[in-house]
Design brief:
Elements (H helix, E strand, L loop, with lengths): L33 E9 L9 E9 L2 E5 L9 E4 L4 E4 L1 E6 L22 H10 L2 E6 L4 H11 L7 E8 L11 H14 L3 E4 L5 H13 L3 E4 L17 E4 L3 H4 L7 H14 L2 E2 L3 H12 L2 H4 L9 H9 L9 H24 L18 H12 L4 H7 L2 H6 L17 E4 L13 E6 L2 E4 H18 L12
Parallel strand pairs: 1-4, 1-5, 6-7, 7-8, 8-9, 9-10, 10-11, 11-12
Antiparallel strand pairs: 1-2, 2-3, 5-13, 13-14, 14-15
Helix pairs in contact: 1-14, 3-4, 6-10, 7-10, 11-12
């Protein structure tokens, strides 16, 4: 599907240094290491998910210390949770984070030539309650980003890293079974935790990669290679853990019917393969095919770095050469993906929320709330949608003993909401504050930082032009 290929260059931009202005999160100076939230309604997102009303929750260091304990520590910061709702930090299971870039010609020792503020970028996640993100095209720069978060230089989400392997002759590629296996072993030694398979792999190499990942104890997520079109069943081999888009199923057929959706759902269920529907991807692609105003008018567009703002407008692959036929085609995919979600739910296929943020028109952080709304519109209950962005992703990532639910002993990744998201999924947007690894950032501070980021981007917008990127 030539319109839906992910452009490689958007993965190359990042944010490196810490801001020197008032928008900087002085994470090391957040002296409080103990907090108490009083009179809050806790939505724990455990399997039974019994709401705990008017509760008191204690956070010590970065751990949930107690819920409704009689023992309240002294010298704590008190947060009033009256009439508010506490949920686990949200998890986006499909992101593409920006990383440092060299766009001009290279020579040994040159390195990157453009450096940006890493906290500016990570703010988009934190402001929207996203405390864990799954990077699906990991590079060495992403390890550096993660280290900045871990060592407290930057406040940002926990980041899981997948190593992408494709066929062909660019990027991390493998075209034989032996090369595929060796590439997996190299990824393991380099510290990657997951493998992502991609569209251009041949059948033999794909199966070898998945099997070697099993041997290396690395879970596999990714695309269904195009070579399997017409015989999709052969792609569902043991240890193929998750399909990264509903789009991967629509790429395997020319018949967008309910019966076909049910056939795909049964394939996934029988193989134990989970799915990231990623409904927002095609929804926003269809909008961009209609008009670039859909990008310019995005609520989060003003927070996106000016170079990416420029790219999404002047080099938009979905709008360039658009036609009524292309728009109709994208619309048909949107409709079929809704049928797929309904079929997955009926078949009992576990679904997790992911956005493909970083592709044109999909803004980090805020897009996860769009995805949750689309999942509910497609037939999930509000509880099921919340589960897809909390407990289930933590389970698939195998860190559900640390995050994903509100329970004592787990990391304090939490989102305080003004209204109940179980009543209306849109209430996930009504954020009063966020705990990120035990550190509190309230709504007022978030709004100040976003305002300053908007001003900064507006001030610098004329300094960045995607068409002149080779000069940078």
């Amino acid at each position: 599907m030539k319109y839906l290929k992910i452009p490689a260059l958007f993965l190359l931009i990042s944010f490196h240094s810490i801001a020197q202005n008032n928008s900087t999160l002085e994470t090391k100076n957040l002296s409080h290491n103990a907090y108490v939230i009083k009179n809050v309604n806790i939505i724990p997102m455990t399997a039974d998910n019994e709401v705990i009303e008017n509760a008191t929750i204690v956070i010590r260091d970065n751990i949930i210390s107690s819920v409704n304990s009689d023992s309240i520590p002294k010298n704590v910061k008190i947060i009033d949770g009256t009439d508010k709702w506490l949920i686990p930090g949200l998890i986006d299971m499909h992101v593409h984070n920006l990383a440092d870039i060299r766009m001009s010609s290279n020579y040994p020792t040159k390195g990157a030539t453009l450096f940006f503020n890493n906290q500016d970028f990570m703010l988009l996640y934190i402001a929207n309650g996203v405390t864990t993100a799954f990077e699906l095209n990991g590079r060495v720069e992403h390890f550096g980003q993660r280290n900045e978060i871990i060592n407290g230089e930057v406040m940002g989400p926990r980041i899981a890293l997948a190593f992408l392997i494709d066929g062909g002759n660019s990027g991390n590629y493998a075209n034989t079974a032996s090369d595929g296996r060796q590439t997996v072993r190299i990824a393991k030694q380099q510290g990657y935790e997951f493998i992502k398979v991609y569209s251009n792999l041949n059948a033999e190499t794909y199966k070898a990669i998945v099997d070697e990942a099993r041997i290396q104890k690395m879970k596999v997520i990714g695309h269904i290679p195009t070579v399997f079109k017409g015989n999709t069943r052969d792609a569902f081999v043991p240890h193929f853990g998750m399909v990264a888009h509903a789009e991967e199923f629509s790429s395997q057929t020319d018949r967008y019917t309910n019966d076909v959706a049910k056939e795909f759902a049964k394939l996934a269920k029988d193989n134990g393969t989970w799915v990231t529907p990623n409904l927002s991807n095609l929804v926003y692609i269809a909008k961009q095919a209609r008009s670039l105003d859909s990008v310019r008018n995005l609520p989060g567009f003003k927070y996106v770095h000016p170079l990416m703002q420029s790219k999404w407008i002047v080099s938009n692959q979905y709008n360039k050469g658009t036609s009524p036929q292309r728009v109709a085609y994208f619309d048909s995919l949107v409709d079929f993906h809704i049928q797929l979600v309904k079929a997955f739910k009926e078949e009992g296929v576990p679904m997790v929320a992911g956005t493909d943020s970083g592709t044109s028109g999909i803004v980090w952080g805020i897009s996860l709330h769009d995805e949750l709304k689309l999942l509910v519109d497609a037939g999930l209950t509000t509880k099921e949608a919340l589960t897809s962005a909390t407990r289930l992703p933590a389970e698939w990532l195998e860190i559900d003993d640390r995050i994903g639910t509100i329970e004592t002993g787990k990391f304090a990744d939490l989102v305080l909401l003004a209204e109940n998201p179980l009543e209306n999924i849109k209430n996930t947007r009504k954020i009063e504050g966020v705990f990120v690894n035990g550190k509190w950032i309230g709504k007022e501070r978030i709004n100040i930082m976003l305002s300053e980021l908007e001003k900064k981007n507006d001030l610098n917008k004329n300094d960045f032009d995607w068409n002149k990127r080779a000069e940078y």
